[in-house]
Amino acid sequence: MDPHGTIGYELRELSILFVRFIEKEKAGKKFEEMHRMQAWALTFLYENRHRSIFQKDIEKEFSIRKSTTSNLVKRLKNNGYIDEHKGTQPDKRLKEIVLTEKAIKQINAFIPYVEKLEGTITKGIDQEELAQFKKTLEKIKANFDQTTDE
Questions:
Q1: How far apart (Å, rounded) are the C-alpha atoms in residues 135 and 142?
Q2: Entry pTM
Q3: 131 in helix, strand or coil?
């Protein structure tokens, strides 16, 4: 079977192009060295800073395992991007994840970069096409959720 044109192959190609663009754009910028997953997690925390966020929220948001999330949280804390606050919710065992000033400064530095990336990705795609694409991606992701339950 020729993989060209299959959804899996095309998503892989898109992922490679995406990473390549990010690395090229990142070169020479004043960003601290951080893994893409860390940047996405910080952005998620920043966009949700008005509510309490816990490790399980990050797991769910990024569809990652508990152990992966634990390592991510540990790296973010060791790098000074987050603090964990105990006992601020009904279940006192949970630790609320809170951004530090260092993280907020870093996020503000890469917001224009993220906006440029999104502009590049969506260039020449009208709102209706974009809405349909996002709807299709959600269906594909839901298919994977169904297979994990079987």
A1: 11
A2: 0.74
A3: helix
Cα separations in angstroms, 8 against 4, 15, 145: 9, 11, 16
What kind of fold does domain 31-144 have according to CATH? Answer: Arc Repressor Mutant, subunit A (1.10.10)
Q: Give the residues across from 43 on adjacent strands.
A: none
Distance CA 69, CA 58 (A): 7
| 118-145 residue pLDDT tens | 999 999 999 999 999 999 999 998 888 7
58 and 97 in contact (C-beta within 8 Å)? yes
Q: Say if residue 54 is exposed, middle or buried (CB neighbours under 10 Å; 0-12, 13-18, 19+).
A: middle
